[in-house]
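Thread: Newbie trying to understand structure tokens

Hi all, I'm a second-year student working on a class project, and my supervisor (Dr. K.) asked me to get a predicted structure for one chain before our next meeting. I've only ever worked with sequences, so writing a 3D structure as a token string is new to me. If someone could post the tokens and maybe explain what I'm looking at, I'd be very grateful. Here's the chain:
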Amino acid sequence: MNNDAVIDESTKNAVFLVATIAAFMTPFMASSINVALPAIESNFQIDTILLSWVPTSYLLSTCMFLAPFGRLADIVGRKNVFVCGSIIFTIAACLSAVSYNIWMLLTFRVLQGMGSAMIFGTGMAMLATVFPPGERGRAIGINVAAVYIGMAVGPFIGGILTEQFSWRGVFASTVPLGVLCTCVSLWKLRWKRKKTEAEKFDVLGSILYGIAIIGVMLGLSKLPSVIGALSIVGGIGFFILFVKCELKTPYPVISMDMFLNNRPFAFSGLAALINYSATFAVSFLLSLYLQYVKGFSPKEAGLVLMVQPIAMAILSPLAGRASDRIEPQRVASLGMLITAIGLFLMSFLNANTKTSMITANLAVLGLGFALFSSPNMNAIMSSVDRSSYGLASGVVSSMRLMGQMLSMGLVSVMFALYIGPVDFSPKIMAQFLECLNRSFIIFAIICVIGIYFSLARGRILGSP
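---
Reply by user tm_fold:
Sure, no problem. This is what the structure looks like when written as tokens:
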């Protein structure tokens, strides 16, 4: 596998800067846009199902391209892919901000997802490449903190930008960061890749992988129609073909050995997939609930939604340290249980629910996710050899994005079943609340199922 070799201290500092900016920028974009969704719906006069595709199209694109671009970065160089991703992300943000219809916006969101996949799939790998083991932990720790900060401030800043400059301001706000990231990358990231044996890019595997994801997601959005069911079946069929292809390919996009021959890794990854499937759409649903049902402004809704990521940012380091003293799967399983309880409590939301109750429930979700996330990642990295850290990190990122995508897909299904293709109005508030309540019950059940896989992974080698 090709690796990049560090030249000097300035290169390390530059990598640290651009990786941290990228770590903040991508989750900020994902979390801030949720608060702007009602404004987008009002601007374009679109129905609820189409509205859900504004965040889903970005996730779908990122998930489709993350593994292929990560593999491509190993072949052509991580710096090259990172710079291209930064440029694409920034251009897509500009184009999204000036979109004059929903189809333009969705197209540019797909393009932005491609750029995000290039950034997300290489930023952490570049940090691991340029920082030696004695310095790597601190660099990665700050990088993870930037992710949580982006998630925390996204709803609040997104609310202010939406109120002051409309939803277009949310997209425009990331342009300066993207320009800075691109300029620093082009100016300062100068190192040569070590020449190793030639590797081939798995084009067939990448195509099968992308078709499988598109088939499942489009199918979910079309349920309960026959076309939706057939699309899901087709997507699953292409995924089976993808797995068979990867087992025979010498340089696969995603290594199947890590799933077939490593139970702790496979079950830890599956637990991550389940957890994100049950939690990612929470901010999307609550943003609509707070603004349409409770009558909050975008800024007020953003302040409420900040509670969960702030709790995660504060508690995640503590949970990570706890997993160094207690078996990680136990801490992670406790986190999954608390998350299930928080989701179940959310299923009782109604038009008269107090804001204090909503924030308390979000704090419970933040606690549960913090107890799950860091220990689960600890379990994953402890279940593989040091030489496989980069590959394991990439696979887990793909599982996380698949979970986020499935979470939005499930919401699309619920919207189709309970609301249908209509605009938001007071006439459908009763249906929306029923959809909201049922969605949280389903998410809670999914988390309960996840507890089994979290516990069944077994004791991690080297854990306390």
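A couple of things are worth pointing out once you decode it. Residues 1-6 have pLDDT under 50 and may be disordered. The radius of gyration is 21 Å. Feel free to ask follow-ups in this thread.
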